[in-house]
Amino acid sequence: MNSYDIVIVGGGMVGAAIALGISQQTDYKIAIVDNQSLDQLTSWPKADHIDNRVSAVTLATVDFLTQLKVWTAIEAFRSSAFKRMFVWDSEGTGNIQFTAEEVHRRQLGYIIENRAIQAALWQQIGQQTTIDVYAEHMLTALVANTPAVLSSPHVSQNTNTNSTSQYYPYTVVLNGGQELSASLVIGADGAKSQVRRLAQFTTREWDYLHHALVATVKWENTHQQTAWQVFLPTGPLALLPLNELSSAQDEPSENATSIVWSAPATQIEALMKVPTQMFLKQLSQATESRIGKAIEIKDQASFPLRQRHAKQYYKKGVVLAGDAAHTIHPLAGQGMNLGMADALALVAEVARAAKRGDAPGGEHILSRYQRQRMPDNLMMMGLMESFQHTFQSQQLPVRWLRNQGLSWVNKQAWLKQQLIKRAVGV
């Protein structure tokens, strides 16, 4: 059995950020377990091909990635800044727009490929001596140790002599038979979290009965460094601006966007099957040709949408972060940013524990993390639910009110400024 202060299950963006942040601030011995190969975890997107899974990265998340010393690599590889957001209701004249100038910033955020963020994090993880990686491994059991085991003379590999982390409440069992004892187990293993299931966390969840279609689309005109979103009767459709070519090229194109189209499952299934030209025509009509006609599409994919929230983020010696703790509708592009906010808070609490010589899995540490993150996550989830229901309603009074509301808010400078600050994390 190998003993660790912290075992992180899940090496995606959130899990990698937590591992890197803790390793940069403490001497804790860390293990990362992930079912992907090391090549998959560390590989960057192709320079001439944009992945169809991207995130709208807020300025708060950029600050965290800068703190982790990975932002420079991400920005140098490929990043698409946006300076404006334009949102409108297809069933009326109501619209609202936000600009970076309103909060005295150069941009509101960036559209970044998920794999680029992950690769940059793993590039830095490779330089850390306190992290062991168990790639191509899966968690098969999470065994709560008995008091007799807890009092046995484990020898921590932690070089922090003040650490009390010889306390191992869990043994993590992997599919290859390896056993890892841990003072703290962090579940960052996504929406279908094995940690959450094995530790028997209860969740509140429901199916949206919607699927999301993602793809990369070229347009007749430029995206104007603007994130566009239209609320259709069947659900939201977002156009996220991309620089088509690697920043190594002389003139990156601004005619490409990533699209996220949310609609009932039957409609998305039908869209996935229609001929390309028919799809492009329907997409152009749905967006009212705001940036001209859609002229090319590639890398279409779809996935179901489900909301989920763990009723508690921690138990004795185990804690959840990112999609393992909560999943949210993608209409505001906040899922990844909420996960990174979880990572930032958890890193800060664990680093505080290290300075005090505490074991990282103490209840007082994990409860502070939960108190910081649960209210924000629940507020954002509630806000997205309200948007979803309001914009799907076809009742005439609701349609009138939402159009009037959008137009009214668009004229309120102070209120808009507060909304922008909240959305981008400044």
Automatic annotation (TrEMBL):
Residues annotated as transmembrane: none
Biochemical pathway: Cofactor biosynthesis; ubiquinone biosynthesis
Presence of keyword Oxidoreductase: yes
Flavoprotein found in the keyword field: yes
Required cofactor names: FAD
SUPFAM superfamilies with a match to the protein in the record: FAD/NAD(P)-binding domain (SSF51905)
Pfam families: FAD_binding_3
Alphabetically ordered keywords of this record: FAD, Flavoprotein, Monooxygenase, Oxidoreductase, Ubiquinone
Annotated FAD-binding domain residues: 4-375
Gene3D superfamilies in the cross-refs: FAD/NAD(P)-binding domain (3.50.50.60)
Protein family: Belongs to the UbiH/COQ6 family.
Matching NCBIfam families: Ubi-OHases
The protein, known as: UbiH/UbiF/VisC/COQ6 family ubiquinone biosynthesis hydroxylase
